[in-house]
């Protein structure tokens, strides 16, 4: 039985949805961690608010956003998400954030 739950939240047509799924899959394989991976489609602005959706793609482990500090944000939106990374802006969260979330959080 998987010990972690990973959620990948996107909206229909998100150009980065597959890349986010690939990122999660690669990190899980590298770390040899079994996880329940749930793809969650955010359909409208009301769902964005209800799901605490900061933009697409959003990756959560055990209910927490992988981006440090993101759990405190409240700017929920049905839009593409941009991440600030060491090398500039990115359409995906930093792989190290995903790794840290997976090894540091229980279900």
Number of domains: 1
Overall shape: it is globular
> If classified by CATH, what would the architecture be?
3-Layer(aba) Sandwich
Give me the CATH fold name: Glutaredoxin
Rg from Cα: 13 Å
Number of helices: 3
Q: Order of SSEs, N→C?
A: EHEHEEEEH
- Helix and strand content put the structural class at alpha+beta
Largest sheet: 4 strands, mixed
The count of strands amounts to 6
Helical amount = 25-40%
Taking the alpha carbons of the first and last residues, their distance comes to 12 Å
Give the full name of the CATH homologous superfamily. Answer: Glutaredoxin
What is the average per-residue confidence, as pLDDT, rounded to a whole number? 93
CATH class call = Alpha Beta
Indicate the low-confidence ranges by residue numbers: none
Strand order of the largest sheet: 2-1-3-4
Strand content: 15-25%
Structure description:
This protein has 107 residues and is of the alpha+beta class. It has one domain: 3-Layer(aba) Sandwich (Glutaredoxin), CATH 3.40.30. It is 29% helix and 24% strand. The protein has 3 helices and 6 strands. The protein has a 4-stranded mixed β-sheet, with helices on one face. Strands 5-6 form a two-stranded antiparallel sheet. A hairpin with a 2-residue loop joins strand 3 and strand 4. The longest helix is centred in the first third of the chain and has 15 residues. It is globular. The N and C termini lie close together (12 Å).
């Amino acid at each position: 039985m998987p010990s972690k739950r990973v959620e990948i939240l996107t909206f229909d047509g998100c150009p980065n949805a597959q890349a986010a799924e690939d990122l999660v899959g690669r990190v899980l394989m590298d770390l040899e961690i079994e996880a329940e991976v749930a793809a969650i489609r955010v359909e409208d602005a009301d769902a964005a608010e209800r799901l605490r959706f900061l933009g697409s793609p959003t990756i959560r482990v055990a209910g927490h956003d992988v981006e440090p500090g993101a759990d405190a944000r409240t700017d929920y939106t049905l839009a593409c998400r941009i991440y600030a990374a060491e090398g500039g802006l990115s359409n995906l969260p930093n792989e190290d954030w995903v790794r840290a979330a997976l090894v540091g959080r229980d279900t």
